[in-house]
Amino acid sequence: MQVSNQAQAVLLLTSHFTKSDRGEPRPLSTHEWGKFAYWLKDRGLQPASLLSDDPRRLLSGWIDQGITQDRIEYLFGRGGALGLALEKWQRAGLWVLTRSDFEYPERLKKRLKLEAPPVLFGCGSRSLLNGRGRSILLGVSIL
């Protein structure tokens, strides 16, 4: 499964790939992600820029007791686990969308704003997400 650098960064920061060990930094919650993404946007940065540049330098003005720079660096260090998860999801017929993807439901972003899920997992036609009507979104947990 091919995903953009932007999607990779969002997945690394917000998704579980395996069962977490105790004491291991956890991925950012939806609320934490909303706050962090807003801070990045306010400074003209994108999550993908943290993959290609020195995160410590880019995050020099970031101060948050819950979302530390060490936590962010740890989460970005899970690239191998992300690659394996993407292969597993592809074999299962799942697709992945992040809030920055064109196909992400615009109505969901408008209604939930910063609380919109950073990542959607699904199967079937993604084009139905932006159609009129009702749908059921199910959370998927891969452990």
How would you describe what is shown here?
With 143 residues, this protein is mainly alpha-helical. The chain has a two-stranded antiparallel ribbon with strand order 1-2. The protein has 7 helices and 2 strands. The protein is 41% helix and 6% strand. It has one domain.
Give a short overview.
With 143 residues, the protein is mainly α.
Structural class: mainly alpha
| Beta-strand proportion | 5-15%
H/E element sequence: HHHHHHEHE
Low confidence ranges: none
Q: Number of DSSP strands?
A: 2
Spatial arrangement of strands, main beta sheet: 1-2
* Overall radius of gyration: 15 Å
Shape: globular
Kindly, what is the distance between the CA atoms of the first and last residues, rounded to a whole number of angstroms?
Answer: 19 Å
Number of helices: 7
The level of helicity is: 40-55%
Main β-sheet description:
2 strands, antiparallel
Count up the domains: 1
Question: Roughly what is the average pLDDT, rounded to an integer?
Answer: 87
List the helices and strands and how they pair.
Layout: H1 5-14, H2 30-42, H3 49-52, H4 55-58, H5 69-76, H6 79-91, E1 95-98, H7 106-112, E2 119-122
Antiparallel strand pairs: 1-2
